[in-house]
Specification:
By secondary structure, the chain is α+β, with helices and mostly antiparallel strands. The chain contains four helices and seven strands. Helix 2 (114-123) crosses helix 3 (145-156) and helix 3 packs across helix 4 (174-183). The protein is globular.
Length: 186
């Protein structure tokens, strides 16, 4: 038996800088799209194939100390030369999801299939490392941490259509991950 659980973390949980930037971004996006403001969420996964426990999340780089399997640039590819403008994709055995206590409508069980859980773990180093905050695929959505999680879910064989953020919330970047999965981007 294996499991994949999805956690929805409020954007900026535990950090004022990210929370403030997220609120400014959402206020502007809501104004441009002529819709009400929503709460923003960041997705993370806990994967348990055959009794092992792994965490998959996207964070600022920390030198690979927590199971980093890939890195990408933030804002512009050229800016990625500096660590402050880089993100990492973590596949961290026995890791932890920071601020998991603030997760909303979580965990959400996505599957109980051990083969699917192992496949998702194996896919983590193959996630596209597109530029964070850009729409390099023309998806109409920027690439970010939610894109990575959506890509992994779709490519592992889980149907992503019914997966939605908590009521009244949005997960920017989710659609970019699904587009990348459909295009076979890696």
């Amino acid at each position: 038996m294996g499991t994949i659980d999805l956690y929805w973390l409020p954007l900026g949980a535990g950090g004022h800088f990210v929370k403030l930037n997220g609120r400014v971004y959402e206020a502007l996006a809501a104004m441009v799209e002529r819709r009400p403001r929503c709460e923003l969420y960041h997705a993370a996964l806990e994967v348990r194939p055959d009794g092992e426990r792994w965490v998959i999340e996207v964070t600022p780089i920390d030198g690979g100390a927590h199971g980093a399997v890939a890195e990408g640039a933030v804002g512009a590819r050229w800016a990625g030369r500096w660590g402050i403008f880089r993100y990492e994709i973590r596949r961290w055995r026995d890791g932890r999801i920071p601020d998991v206590g603030e997760a909303v409508e979580s965990p959400r069980a996505l599957t109980g299939d051990a083969a699917c859980a192992r496949r998702l773990l194996d896919l983590a180093p193959q996630v596209p490392t597109l530029v964070w905050g850009r729409d390099e695929l023309g998806a109409g959505d920027m690439w970010n941490s939610n894109s990575v999680i959506a890509w992994l879910i779709a490519r592992s064989g889980i149907e992503p259509a019914p997966i939605r953020p908590p009521a009244g919330g949005r997960a920017p970047g989710w659609e970019a991950g699904l587009v990348a999965a459909r295009l076979g981007a890696a």
